[in-house]
Amino acid sequence: MTLPQRQWPYLSPRATGIAAALITITIWTAFIIIARASAKGSLTPLDLAFVRMLGAGTVLLPWGFWLVRSHKLQGWLGLSPLPFRITAICGLFGGLLYALLAYAGFFYAPAAHASVLMPGSLPLWTALLAAVILKDRITPARALGLLLIVGGGLLVGGASLWRALSQAASGGAVFEGVFRGDLLFMSAAICWSTYSVLARKFGLDAVKATIAITVFAVLTFMPAYIALVALGQVKTGLLTAPWPEVTFQIFMQGIGSVVISGITFTKMIQHFGPVRSTMMTALVPGLSALGAVVFLGEPLHWNLLAGLALVTAGIVFGVRAAQKAA
Q1: What are the sequence ranges of the domains in the chain?
Q2: pTM for the complete prediction?
Q3: Which of 162, 279, 282, 310 suits a disulfide with 152, CB 3.0-4.6 Å?
């Protein structure tokens, strides 16, 4: 049973769609900038993952409990509205691994790299995984769009890759510095794309899927994190960080990035459709990269500008190709 689709109070359908798109793009852009800024603060990547799950779980676990009870769903533990197998598979990729890999990446690589290698590369990994798992056909026009995305990613991450290969040739460590962050960003994007393709394969409702992956992440990661901190096996900054910083991260990383943007993205899809919505979210790589220059003082080199241009063009071209094919 799907939830009724209601218009936001006092807004026309068009205004609702536009508001949802603006909120989604703003939160996705702010997530990249704030997560990178947080890497210079007192919280660790595991701390950020913890507050993300704490904030989202505070809202979504009661919501899941209500859904299971009110609609008499065969969920998992009375909290996830989806069966255990689907909850675990989607929760592993979309809830747990994505958060851990993405937050770790911000501690090694600039936000501009995250802009291209995470939201910018999602269409690439999603298309490739959909071709393998769902047997989707990649048309020549769409393939050209994907090649543009690959070219943009190489322009941005090519320098760190070259340095890593040079270090390996001289006997040094390979997975260090910016290259490590780039790999983490790409791995996070692959995890989210895997979740997206699985959600499509299983025909999941967006709200139920968001609740399910949060339930899995909360029940698997948070107890382990607390136990490891108590035993002194994991360092944490949560106990010494200023409480306004922790409160802000709980709201931004958990409630904002997971709950609010999850709902507004669903509303945007309902009004504009998946094709036009994807074209709108193509603004995120450029906006977040420019935001990193303005707010974080990151340099804007020519290769970054060229990479952003190629990735954005690849997304738009690929989406238009998919629209024509449909």
Answers
A1: 13-325
A2: 0.86
A3: 310
